[in-house]
Fold each of these.
Amino acid sequence: MKKGLNGLLIMLAFVLVLAGCGKSTTTTDTSQGSDSGSAPAEETAGPVTVKHKRGELKLDKPAERVVTLEWTYTEDVVALGVQPVGNADNANYKVWVTSEAALDDSVTDIGTRSEPNLEAIAALKPDLIIANADNNTAVYDQLNAIAPTIEYDPYDGDGYDYDKMTEIFNNIATALGKEDKAKEVLSNLDQHYVEAKEKLAAAGKENFNFALTQAFTYQNAVSLRMFTDNSVVIGTLDKIGLVNDWQPDKVENYGFSTVGIESLTDVKDSNFIYITQPDDDVFGTAMKDNSVWNGLNFVKEKRTYQLDSTTWTFGGPISSKVLVDGVVEAITK
Amino acid sequence: MSSVQGSKPAMNWRTISIYGGGLTALIVLFFVSLCYGEASIPLHVVWDALTGRQDSLEHNMVWDLRMPRTVIGILAGGALAVAGALLQTITRNPLAASDTLGINAGAYFVVVLGAIAFPGLLSQSPFIFAALGGLLAAFAAYFMGGGRTSSPVRLALSGMIVSMVLGSFTSALHIFFSMETQGLFLWGSGTLVQNDWSGVFYALPWVVGITLLALILSRQWDMLELDESTASSLGQKVTLARAVGLILAVLLAAVIVSVIGPIGFVGLVAPHLVRLSGVRSNRLLLPGVFIWGAALLVGADVLAKMVHNSSMELPTGAVMAIIGAPWLIWLVLTRMKAANGSGMSTSMSTGGAARRFAFGPMAVLFSVITVVLILLSTMFGGMRIPLADWLPSLFQSDGLFSALIQLRIPRTLVAAGAGAALAISGVLIQMAVRNPLADASIVGVSSGAGLGAMMVIILWPGLPIYLLPIAAIIGAAIAAVVVFSLAWKKGLNPSAVVLLGIAMSAIAGAGIQILIVRGAVYGSSGYIWLTGSTYARTWEQVRVIGLFLVILVPVAWWLARRFELLVFDDNSASGLGLGVRRTRLLAMTVGVLLAAGAVACVGTVGFIGLIAPHMVRLLTGNKLRRSMFLSALAGAVMLVLADTIGRTVMAPTEIPSGILIAIIGTPYFLYLMYRSNWRKSV
């Protein structure tokens, strides 16, 4: 049993790191979150009703002190121009999530995403907690006793796709009284897609075929997360006219298939876009001299494109923008 | 020196069949393993690749991805099997292997430690770290198990416990240093996946060299199988041969652990498989063992590939445990006759006649400590509540401090209740099997409960939470029924019970891994729950554990009285007939149920059922009911302490209580084990 436990713990360590891995980085657009607190004119002040997984939540007034237990929601909140008072695992957020959705130093760390520290959350006296059904559903009642809690489940059977991303984003905007800001963010994003498409067209890369992966070393071997059509990243790239070639036989709830190098033969003629971590550069080092890797057409023909390590693949609008910027830059270079 | 074995063993038909069968199996599995992978490559293409490699994608895949994996499987299986055979010979112990003696766990622990402390040095020479760790663990197991006077069971048990201790230390390292350990060393459950040939090239010279050396020295190992008096007349030679054998075995295991991680049971099973054919001489035994070990591991790996889902692959180590654990059971049932009743088990006392303190004052002292600690525990956490604010906050219903206390009270009570339940369960199980080194986790009951509860969490995540304790009870009951019905014919012989329990734990652990792979659940609270967590427990769990205690403790109390009336060992009690056996069975049942209740509430926390009764026995002697009362309080104190520390020291990150219990409790337990041997040998 102990042996099993070790395995579990290790897997746990792995899960903690990777369940949330993905990220994207860009370095423009610095001060999204700097205007938190100071109420812009658009803000509604009256009671609001928010839809979430467990029905509807009524708040007397829009929430101001928000605690987020999953980075997707943290990013949504930041995109709305608000900094949460508490976030799960700040250190890894910085590693994985783009600096365009940066956290202020004032944001308190409330522990891991899988076991957020209830005491630390209570100490912040939040007026809204945004929880993730995947990790936090067992503690929902306790969270709700601390502060009104809304819960979302991005992975309730068919993946966290683009529509679900915008739906959750809009709901969170309602809770914060930032619906106008949300509209603005989303329409800016659509405008951004139009511009990106133009850039692609100018470079002759319309209808660009691709496979997108996030790769890492697991159990000392290369492991690849190949994203599927029901993921937010593929949904985003679809908006700029790119065509995903990774089509698995079954629906992947998390929006990706985890495979080894062998499976890349299925997409060997495609264009290969990948995200790796600086300290785990699987294609640079582990695969450099591998005959299978080097035999894939996209490697032979130098059609591999690396994105920044902080390209977050499970994010919200900011991550979508960063992903589009990164991909357009990489393939038109 | 050459006359010891007497004859050149004849190459009889059984020998030929064991070699032929092994080689055939290995060759078939070799091809199956090459044919099986993510990309589908037809058999004839695999054959083309083998006979005439071309620079095609398929051929490259066969040669540079699948072949290294298969070859490392052959090397690892063979090496672990040879190590097991050597260890079984030098310790004259049919249960010895690099995993049962803690060598794998030791090697792995030091490698992970090296990854944190000396990352540069480690990447250059992981082997040195692994060898050092393996050797230290082997010595620890040997001395804790009683050194020369150790019985086979005792040595295996001590090795298992050393493994558990080191395993929990490794887990702790992963938690405390997640950043340093995450990318580097995540192969803790044993997998053969290879990126390229580098692992093979690294292991090959060592495995071949050491195996050949072991073969050249085969007559020395033959000598070690002589009976004690003949061997002792050879004196020094025997000691030297033992030492050399141990070093060779540790080196073999260490090189394998540093490539593929700790994999168990190969070294235990393969030698017995070959010995079944009647092969005795090590010159014939070792090559046969190598072949069968290789076939076993490659076979396990093929099965592991089949359980693969789109998210992850089943660790080969888990499949090996499912193949290997029944063998351990078989060994216990058939090969343990000679070892029955040896070593431990004659007395409940490991510390001999210890200091005795009067029960009355002790009871008062323990009660006061428990109550004070529970109250103190509500003061500490991510935020400390000052004494001045503490008392008022207890009775207020709003304000920050009272909110914190509202969160802390239920989890503290759950910890106290589960700790008490585990301790009482330990006392009962120890009574039942007359074995001071038994508790729910050692006899496999905790793992069974864990598997049952995990099935609810993973297979039917929508089910209501009250089914968790029920599933845990069912799992625990099945594990207990299997273990005890197998051990029944041996009169519930303590040694048999413990070893069957270890086998059961291995099977349940592998089952949990399969569930996780098949369920593909990320970030599930199930993972953390399994490590023994008091995180976010609510009044709901307080009620569950309270219910278990209210119903079962009076029964336990009555049983303890009954045991006090019965004479202790079976020989003198046999006149009382079935009464003894029935009472023991009942104690067993109640102990199992209590443990299941605790597992349902806090996950698989180990060791409390072992440590608490020991501590108490040391203080007050063997009066059962007194011991039970004090043990319950001691168990409660331990888990409350673990809970408090776990939520305080690394706040806001929590440390699972189960890991803290292992870290706090096992050194004490090892000390007790050592002490009892020392006293016995004087």
Note: Chain A touches chain B through 74 residues (CB under 8 Å).
Amino acid sequence: MTELIEHEHTDAAVGPRTVELSMQQAINRALHTLLTEDPDVLVFGEDVGALGGVFRVTDGLQKEFGDQRVFDTPLAESAIMGMAVGLAMNGWRPVPELQFDGFAYPAIDQIVNQVARMNYRTRGAAPMPITLRLPSFGGIQAPEHHGESLEALFAHTPGLKVAAPSDPAEAYSLLLQSVRSDDPVVFMEPKARYWDRRPVQLSEPTDPIGTSRIVRPGRHATLVAWGAMVHKCLQVAELAAEDGVELEVLDLRWLKPIDAAGLAASVARTKRAVVVHEAPLTAGLGAEVSTLITENCFRDLAAPVQRVTGFDVPYPAGPLEPQYLPTIDRVLLAVQRTLEY
Amino acid sequence: MPPEESTGQGAITVAHLAPELTRGLYRDMRTARDLDTEAIALQRQGVFPAYVSVRGQEAAQVASATALDPARDFVFPTYREMAVALAYGVEMVGYMATHRALWHGGLYDVMGSRFGAINAVVGGPVPHAVGWAVGERLRGDQGVAMAYFGDGASSEGDVHEAMNFAGVFTAPVVFFCQNNQWALSVPNERQVAGGSIAARAEGYGMPGVLVDGNDAGAVYAATDEAVQRAREGGGPTVIEALTYRVEPHSTSDDPGRYRDEAVADRWRQRDPIDLLRTAMLQAEHADEAFFATVATEAAQRAEQIRDGVASAPEPDGSELFTHVFRETTEELTRQHRTWQEEVEL
């Protein structure tokens, strides 16, 4: 935490609560805030204690809050999530971490059959205020099972809410919101953006759960993305602007519930939409987003909604990863297709 | 005590227990038996789509539940724990409602009853018990979590993960396995490598106890010891109560296709309620007048529950949408509205 304090700005132009943080540090700050404000919050998972997590997201938390509030578990994802259910039934507010997205699969039964349904099954008697922190998506040339995009699976599961921040400030406020929510939230942290440093306003969340945000306004087409792809779309928008094309970048950030109204408002203005995600194309969340746009903006659309996604292949190894993930060129081509339609 | 050895073993004793306690055990076992019989009848009448009998397992269920304190402990059941629910004080019309398929998980108050939702993923609730128990210790409270599961569930990875977690965290949990020797159609020898679930406890750093599941006094004593140990910070225990599923797996099952009913008949002869009755008479814990009174009262209570569940209202269709989230979403509200409009057409 000393490193963070060094970067604390007090200059009036930036604001007294603005600090320069990476996303991984911003999440650490949010956990710190949550552990401080609510004695029922517990942080646990594999290697989150002394090590501070494999991405150091929980760095220093055990030292500060003790090994009762921040603790390591044995290596068993299903039991980690099952344990979260029991802790929630005993009045705690669990914030478990599963180390990598691919390791969420062994816990799917607990997540889908138990966490997502317990409030329903008990007719509201046993709420599940659980936030599953899941380092997600690709872009870091990790080994197999260390880079997956599970958002469609979670968003498809009744009872779960799903968030994916795109920058440090968003990560801070979305995590506060997720953990304070009495509904279970899968919080998908884009690994590729963990180390991206920028000034962060440590501010309380103001927008309700399920709202998107316009990261960059534009008038010729809307790029819809979440997680690390928001950054990619901003790069695309920057390049397109050189050619006089003004792209609006919409950060969906809540993948369940999806901000249908926000999507519609943007696309009604721009008449064109390109959805960008890392997950494979077929039955990916882009299909849902595309349908929502078509349902709500059919008469406004000047072109069919385009999708730029990963391919329908297992997540590839390092050298092939850049060819699998949506590239700036692929997104630009899709923009061109929608403009020339 | 391998399964066959215990078959048809002789009398049991309750001399080590207080008379009031054994009378309570008997009353609940008798009531559970009558309610079980009523439930099978309701299935035959088409009121229940299906039912899973607990017949023959009343001692394992009632005596273990009686060793718990419903004011501070918490039970995590699977789907064949009707007699546990009854002995633990769960509102039984709400419990039986799940067998009428009125609501998955039952209509009783899970948190108020301190009895988890009925769960068909049989290994699923076992790690919940560990989480609850760890939470209890973190708060400095004295409650014990009781995880019920069967020999079939003992093969589930979650059960093993949960036992390992409980050992590592010294969690106040009792893993209570009713080994009724049949996981639907698969017998113990095709289910439990090594032949003993209790023996697995050693590998997880906790005591494992094998108990005659048809001996109410023995089940009570074993559970009481494990619960006290957990309460006092001594950590978890595995109890394997060896019993037998004398009925089919469910009312939809046909055990003639996979087992020799002569074996089931031998177990029927060793009925846990008859055993307890004989032991109570021997220990002079009760007289014939007590048993006659209990027979009447049990039948009456079972009928009341039967009538209650048979006449319980079906849930309103609106409940499809009510409990999905604490804070619902615009999309779900829209779907609720659409559903309402279609219903009203």
Note: Chain A touches chain B through 47 residues (CB under 8 Å).
Amino acid sequence: MSETKNILLVGVGGQGIILASKVLSKGLVDAGFDVKMSEVHGMAQRGGSVTTQVRYGEKVYSPIIGKGQADILVAFEKMEAMRWIEYLKPNGKLVINNYSIPSVPVLTGQVKYPENIIEELKEKVDTTVIDAANAARELGNIRTQNIIMLGALVKALNITEVNWEEAIRETVKEKYIDINLKAFNRGMELV
Amino acid sequence: MKRLLTGNEAVARGAYEAGVTVASAYPGTPSTEILENIAKYKEIYSEWAPNEKVALEVAIGASIAGARAIAAMKHVGVNVAADPLFTFAYTGVNGGCILVTADDPGMHSSQNEQDNRYYAKSAKLVMLEPSDSQEAKDFVKLGYEISEMFDVPILLRLTTRICHSKTLVELEERQEVEIKEYNKNIAKYVATPANGRILHVKLEEKLKKLEEYSNNTPINKVEFNDKSIGIITSGVAYQYAKEVFGDNASYLKLGMTFPLPKQKIREFAEQVDKLYVIEELEPYLETEIKAMGIDVIGKELIPNIGELNPDIIREALLGEKKEIIEMNSEKIVSRPPTMCAGCPHRGLFYVLSKKKNVVITGDIGCYTLGSAPPLETMDTCICMGASVSAGHGFSKAFEVNGKEAKVFGVIGDSTFFHSGITGLIDIVYNKGNAATIILDNRITGMTGHQENPGTGYTLMGEVTEQIDLVKICEAIGVKHIEVINPLDLEETEKAIDKAINTDEPVVIITKWPCVLKKSPKEEIEEYGLDQRKICTVESDKCKQCKLCLKVGCPAISFEEGIGAIIDDTMCVGCDVCLQVCPFNAIVKVGE
């Protein structure tokens, strides 16, 4: 493969986006790709907008991409999908978690959380909706949403060259390996 | 073995491989993880210093003693360390020494976006600028060679994008470097005017030789492709330029940007038709190259504000714009950073927000978020430590000009040790009446939980003496000192009111551990953290007055017709909302 692929993961602090990106990057490196991963997180420890960009291919230069360049946008939270949709290629894929986390201006009643997000996005772009929260609850740990989303990403982008089980085993804490392997497979099934 | 490392991890690895034995820093985004990673190598003594000036001075001392040493800080930290830095360039080193400056174009978490390349020119320091993690590691190792070869300190400039991006790095073994012999040398290491005058001449001679080195070093690298466009660039801007132009342009990629390789630049310029300088933030290279009489295009097309990216270059130089999916952006609600649910700063700021005729001078830390809605309890925020001293200035200006308002300077524990302490000395010495509130959350919060002199632990995990804030304030001469629990609104309000009605220097210490902190067992017991019960709303008692929303807790939301709702996954039972509710509708779960 010569073309560089661009992946953008977005969501809210605390959702495990950085860990999911680490698994993703580790898998891609082990499969022999040149990989660059960039984290962007604002000042808040929690509750702020968090994004990571992962680029892979034969040779990658810039660690970041601009608008209209992501092959896939994986949104862990609905409104964040809207915020970052400009970064997706017009013919790219959106994988969106049907899950909302209100921000402080919403909580304090200054503004309303936007409605019909998924409907609007579906009109404009190839969209796959994942109910990762329920799937994670069924698995017994709400915090596995991130690896479910990762599984969905891998399936949607059809990345076949990577040993994902090994990447998960080497990245997550030992006692969470089994549940995360299940979560990954569940995510694959949901696409 | 190749591994994905951030630039910060790569710098730490470079220090390890280069045989460094002493490292000191003050935490600050995006530089913090450099020392956190160095601390994992047992061969290196590593520490958090109370501020950047101290960190650099520790590295200078270690270097003169003969050891390879490193100091790391964010860009604004170099301002704090600038005093010793300029003189260190004169004295030179014994063991090699590197100062890392992590600049923050785009101000992801900073109060300005200064370009610290100018420090190299101004202080006359060799500057290296890596463009990815591999170079970050390599340049650290090369930096020690240059430092010892030419007897100069090195400024290694990273930017947020380099610090926090992971790229592949080839790991190598550590090279043990024996401590160099130390010989007392007053003429070299004692910077009196008489010695300094001689040292300055020597430094200028070294810089001439370093320019020769710069012309010949392979880290200043020419890549010839299509010669119709030539690009001179450095740092991460090189990667962006390659992304956009690929093989359709020729490059002069500068890894050493002070002294500049003027001969190499001239030769490169002569061989290409059209010359661009692509650099992030200021026209540092451009100005120097233009001063050589070479015509280049740079900042007339590429902005000097904000973080650079391939898009900006593509649009500015090629006029190309990517097609994008458009959305109704008005629908998207902002997601500003906020004090966490259970943050011990919330109670204090809530009390302060209700006080009339007070001025709050703020500082750099989580508590800067006290300026955000709904609390909006802050009038200024300049730099670390300025809350106390600017507060003093504010109160003096009012006093002299016959105006009345009580001034409160709010500052964190780590920040107080950093540079608040001198401001407090100023208040006492000069008979000020500004009150100082030290928000002691038992850790350095904003940068992600680094130990500090008040926490009782070192960076290397050793138990150490806890510096006692009360005793320090007493020693400075403050007579009115109160230690309060900021989650107790009544106690907090009493302390604030007392301060408002006092005309002598006051210190209020709000002591409660950061809600995200992994407290040691003793702390959990001391504060009864494991006994806490979360809160809930009895909706039949909720009169929908929305007063609880005024505390700005992310765990509390409101639904018309139902009233306030507390998210049980976020609430930690700090009880601030419970104390605020006038109808006792907020209760403890299970009580």
Note: Chain B has a mean pLDDT of 97.
Amino acid sequence: MGGTLLSLALTLLGLLLVTFIIGRVMPIDPVLKVVGDRASQAQYEAAYRAMGLDQPLYIQFWRYIGDVLTGDFGRSISTGQLVVNDIKRVFPATFELATLGTLIGVFVGVPLGVIAAARRGGIIDQIARVVALVGYSMPIFWLGLMGLLVFYGILGWVGGPGRQGIIYDGMVPVVTGLILVDSLIAGDWGAFKDAFSHIILPASLLGYYSLAYISRMTRSFMLEQLSSEYITTARVKGLSERAVIWRHAFRNIQIPLVTVIALSFGSLLEGSVLTEIIFSWPGLGQYITNALLSGDMNAVLGGTVVVGICFVLLNLFSDLLYRVLDPRSK
Amino acid sequence: MRHLLTPRAILLASALAIAPAAYADTPADTLVVAHTIDDIISLDPAQSFEFSGNDVNQNTYDRLVDFDPLDPDAGFKPSLAESWEVAEDGMSITLKMREGVTFHSGNPVRAEDAAWSLQRAVKLNLTPAFILTQFGFTPENVEEKITFDDTTLTLHMDQPYAPSFVLNCLTANIASIVDKETVLPHVDGEDLGNAWLSTNAAGSGAYTLAAWRANEAVQFTAYDDYWQGAPEMKRVIVRNVAESSAQRLLLEQGDIDVARNLSPTDVDSLRNVEGVTIQDEPRGRILYMGLNQNDEVLSNPAVIEAMKHLVDYEGIADSFLKGMFAPHQTFLPMGYLGVLEDQPWTYDVEKAKALIEEAGLAGSTVTTKVRDLREYTDVAQALQASMAEAGLTLNIEQMTGAQVLDAYRARSVPIFIGEWGPDYSDPNTNAATFAFNPDNSAEAAATGLLAWRNAYAVPDEMNEATQAATLEQDADTRAQMYIDIQKQYQAEAPIVPMFQRIEPTGLRENVQNWFSGRAVTSVMYRQVTKGE
């Protein structure tokens, strides 16, 4: 466990170092963002010193590490708020979306992949192939806009851009920051329905993308298993095809599948920038991108650390799952 | 596969449970606005210098003088100051405070609050402070220079500035009047309440700030005791919606009342949608072309003249800038005191070609560094095409806004294409940056002046005229002085104003009296009404 913690610490340190260096060599002047286009040279220099940019890089980095260890990510220059508070606000929005998206990806993608493998070359396999191909190759902003146009603009089945309708805006007390959960805690069924109608379209879109990936991976894992000798043995023993597939083959692909799902969840947690922009979803992806474009390094570094921690935790979590799923490790 | 049906069944059931919701109009007493508000850094009027931040302050605070949203062309009008008087020597202005006005806290608005607010802005000396400090106030002397008694406030200036100049500057966001007693308990060290006011409001405006979630939404609640009468819209919600097409869909569905960032394509298609109207308002920003005089080719007077004829003003305004910009060839925006209405330049490639050949510069190459905004890059490409016909090659380098600004301030952009927005509602705001550059040397580092950024050595007489115009007491004479400066500017300056911004706003049909601020100020909500 000590080894795990050490490697975790080193990973995060490396992450901080890389982002810090990228931030400093980026050809964007963070001082200008603070003082504005019209500032005099004196104002500019005062701000430059106040931000500590006159210090050598290693001192800046050393200070930064110190701040981060005490939980101080500094103040974002593009929102004027503490980065910690910003992230507390934007992360739940992304987390909610990514979780629902991944659930859709898993519950549709896994069975689709299994069936495609079991009936290889069959009609479902062909459909799964097309679905995955479209999922991989369609630009997400196009699908998002079309989805909005059809399901919101024409049919009116779902809510429009944003996390909530206007009447519910800011009405549900914030507990977790996940509106679906908070509205249930508040017992506000109307707010829940409203939030669900807003999240379902972007979540389906993200779900579609992770479905495309998960179903292809599931299919190839299954094919590998189904061509193994123990499967032939099981079939010779006269087990039903359903038992062969689900009880034998599927059980053996669970471990690699967990890794695939964790990775796909992790990448959604970084925030799908385009989805967030199209759906006016105030999430982490939009936050980090905005920060990056305006040279707001405190916000970028803070956001990156959060994403880094997510990946590390997901890795830990899938390690733990391995132990549960793999009888040999018991 | 039975056990798979369970999650699927859950999904299906939940999809059915969420029956298609009814998307009715927004509530009758609530105004819902979609806007990109990701530029707000601070809501402290002494600091805010971004469009959206000023939009918020405009409605939560009052100023001593303000524009009337129903009659913006009339210029500034009395607001918290009900009248003013200029001293005989012109060195001071005394403003009489309106009685019976209260802040949102219930505290009365006193001359003391007004003096403290202006002193505070000068002492904090943040980005927009120059709007006040240009009258000779410094953090050190401001307590002696801005004085008050029970009913009046007096500004003692270092020169006899034009009264219209001073009063126009008092309409600026930085001159908002802050509730001193409310802010004092929140002062942290030397910050004069800056940290607290960054996220809170303490004004007397028509609206109180109900909530601000950065990059997400600003909510306002009507101030029922507002001295000009309680606003009709009891709530105003401004939502950050970055995508034009998303704003358009929301507007079509009636989920919002106002869409403020519509692309020309979306504006075009909304013009034919029932229940939606488009309101075009001229705004203050000028799209101009700066020719860097450190560049060998661009500093040739023949090339400067030729470039003015290589812009297809009408063609561009009728095609890809349609509905966003109108041709405008002077540095003062329409709506400003002393704006020159002449449009002397025409698109004439043959003439430009002749000029360039005569100067022996045919075949030369120049570069533009242009921000990766569609409008700018399109203009650059149109220019590239017409320059090619006239015998010049234009290299287009696209970069982010921050990168271009960096290079521009370092005087390393040969041809700059971009916008300039006025800082306050007086003509001096643009004259002092386009037509004023007392020291063109690199060491002067006057990075704030557009003339310096383009290495344009403004002739002495123009520098002097620009300064003299700030001191002219008679408003008509003053207007004529600006007209003269602009005429000379059009004749010789290497900075070429091309277009003025037009802002189309998409409105639900029942929204009346919408006002985005024209060229002179920011959005106001208090006069907006919603009919049936």
Note: The mean pLDDT of chain A is 84.
